[in-house]
């Protein structure tokens, strides 16, 4: 198991909430929780399709920059994957009070990718851990003052493409 990604994730989780409280111009709440689901395609002899679901927390350091952890569970046939990353999200447009609009963003994350596989004939279970990263972008649109919906596309390691839709709830004032 690679220890450096775990240390980086722990540092982000511990430092981000304090940094978010110290941030000044907060036109957004200090944090948001995202719940997501979608499609993941892994490179194999072709594309292997699997179903991911995830949850992320973003602490805003400024109106356009947020940091936080994301956990994604990916279900496959006789195996599963778990991805834990610390993400940096940058909104490409500055939020405006009282105006709703679609906000494009980029996201970069690094952490740990875990796979567990069951073998039917031997009843053995195999697990592996390796470093992980994702990079991509998407759009987010407000539904009301606290709730938004969106979609993103990412490339990641272990080599995969991830397409997700999400609902986001803003916490705080």
Backbone structural class: mainly beta
| Basic shape | elongated
Strand order of the largest sheet: 1-2-3-4-5-6-7-8
CATH class call: Mainly Beta
Largest sheet: 8 strands, antiparallel, barrel
- In DSSP terms, counting alpha (H) and pi (I) runs of 4 or more, how many helices? 1
Strand percent estimate:
over 45%
In CATH terms, what is the fold-level topology? Porin
Total beta strands: 8
Total of domains? 1
Distance between the termini: 40 Å
CATH architecture: Beta Barrel
SSE order = HEEEEEEEE
Low-confidence stretches are 16-26
Oligomer: single chain
In helices, the fraction of residues equals 10-25%
- Round the Cα radius of gyration to an integer and report it: 17 Å
Mean pLDDT: 83
Plain-language structure description:
By secondary structure, this protein is mainly β. It has one helix and eight strands, in the order H-E-E-E-E-E-E-E-E. It has one helix at residues 3-22, and strands at residues 31-43, 47-60, 65-76, 79-91, 103-119, 124-142, 147-157, 160-171. It has an eight-stranded antiparallel beta barrel with strand order 1-2-3-4-5-6-7-8. The longest helix is centred in the N-terminal third of the chain and has 20 residues, at 3-22. Mean pLDDT is 83; it is low at 16-26.
Provide tags for this entry.
173 residues, mainly beta, Porin, eight-stranded antiparallel beta barrel, 1 helix, 8 strands, elongated
Strand-helix topology:
Elements: H1 3-22, E1 31-43, E2 47-60, E3 65-76, E4 79-91, E5 103-119, E6 124-142, E7 147-157, E8 160-171
Antiparallel strand pairs: 1-2, 1-8, 2-3, 3-4, 4-5, 5-6, 6-7, 7-8
């Amino acid at each position: 198991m690679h220890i450096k990604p775990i240390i980086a994730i722990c540092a982000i989780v511990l430092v981000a909430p304090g940094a978010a409280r110290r941030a000044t111009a907060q036109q957004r709440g200090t944090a948001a929780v995202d719940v997501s689901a979608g499609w993941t395609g892994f490179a194999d002899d072709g594309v292997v399709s699997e179903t991911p679901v995830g949850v992320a927390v973003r602490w805003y350091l400024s109106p356009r920059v947020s940091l936080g952890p994301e956990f994604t569970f990916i279900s496959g046939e006789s195996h599963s994957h778990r991805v834990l990353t610390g993400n940096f999200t940058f909104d490409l447009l500055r939020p405006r009070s009282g105006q709703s609009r679609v906000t494009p963003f980029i996201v970069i994350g690094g952490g740990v990718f875990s796979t567990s596989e069951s073998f039917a004939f031997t009843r053995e279970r195999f697990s592996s851990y390796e470093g992980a990263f994702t990079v991509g972008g998407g759009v987010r649109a407000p539904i009301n003052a606290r709730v938004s919906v969106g979609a993103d596309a990412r490339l990641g390691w272990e080599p995969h493409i991830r397409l997700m839709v999400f609902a986001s709830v803003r916490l705080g004032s």
